[in-house]
Amino acid sequence: MRRLALVCIAVALAACAARGLNPPAEQSPLILISIDGWRWDYDGKAPTPHLRALMKRGVRADNLIPSFPTKTFPNHYTIVTGLYPGHHGMVANTVRDPATGRTFIRTNVAEVRDPMWWGGEPIWVTAQRNGRIAAAMFWPGSEAPIGGILPRYWKPYDDTFPPEQRVDQVLQWLDLPAGERPALINLYFSDVDSAGHDYGPDSREVQDAIQRVDGYLGRLGRGLEQRGIAANVNLIVLSDHGMAAVDTGRVIVLDDYVAAADVDVVDLNPTLGLFAKSGKDAAVYASLSAAHPRLRVFRPQTTPAAWHFRDHPRIPPIVGVADEGWQVLPRATMNRILAGTLAGERGNHGYDPALMSMRGMFVAAGPAFKAATTVAAFENVHVYHLLASLLGVEPAPNDGDPAVGRELLRD
Length: 411
Ligand code: AMP
Ligand code: ZN
Ligand code: ZN
Prior knowledge:
There is one protein chain. This protein is of the alpha/beta class. The chain contains 13 helices and 20 strands. A hairpin with a 2-residue loop joins strand 12 (about 265-270) and strand 13. The longest helix is centred in the middle third of the chain and has 23 residues, at about 205-225. The protein is globular. One zinc ion binds near residues 36, 193 and 240.
């Protein structure tokens, strides 16, 4: 038995050496944590002792620049693939695929689990193709067998699954014996984003959510310490986008400019993704382009170059985005908000990634990272290269630059 184990280790070492990679046995586990909607400046809004301790022990960026559109699914998938949404194809939270006529909505489990939606190669697939084990405690894309590969361990998304139990599940995965233990674990929390939408970024409720989530980081840290592995784990804590305050005084009512019968509205507020009905495209585009000084309207080919949002066939023929703090709503929704039968949002995101309010955060600590270091803001397409390098695996082709992540690492 012991001899067999030794033979297995020798074979694994030889396989890694042949590929010029570090053998898994030497590797520190990597935990990638997303705190949805954590704006870059939120650590100053409420006491965050656990996040601050990570910053002190590790490296932080001034902020993390999201990709367009600054929404949850596009950006979570950019972080794990290194591809802009305009390249990986998850071009909004709600997407129409013109080739099949199908529509992706995050609440439709059949669509969420269909790999056809998920372009590029997420890091858990890269990891497992190279013999590493991956686990996902929720992450957009982690429920679909992309390239035929699912994370070895994953959970069906459940917004009500208690965050403390998510942390405990991560710790249980780390308790598995060496040959079954994941080298990469993704972990996701939605508290801060939800509070931001419901109450606005400057609310007491967001402060409470910030403190709650910092408590989850504390729980994870204590669990790692109890296992004696705290110093050996590489932790990255980041967010997908920030949050801007919105109110009912700044609303562009879509029906005032476009007849509902003339378009399919696939994506809405504060972005717009429209497919005009047959023969209506030019008129709808012209009408919307002149509609409102706070609404910018584009063809895919005329979107700002910095967005890299021109190429994918799923980018709608008419793309729009409101200015910071403005909303785009149908008349019916606006009427219900004004009548008090629907609670309007107090915060939103999706705006131009150049805006400071849309910037997220990036903090990393562990044996691989520099200590007590702050680096300049960088785009979230660069994170995938960093993940691949921490795992010692060859990255798939992507839009990132490996030099950005190298700046964060110890020599
Ligand atoms: P957004 O509309 O961009 O603010 O999306 C945030 C919401 O996405 C959160 O409140 C979550 O409930 C939801 N969400 C996050 N991750 C997943 C997932 N893996 N599957 C389904 N829904 C998710
Ligand atoms: Zn989000
Ligand atoms: Zn959100």
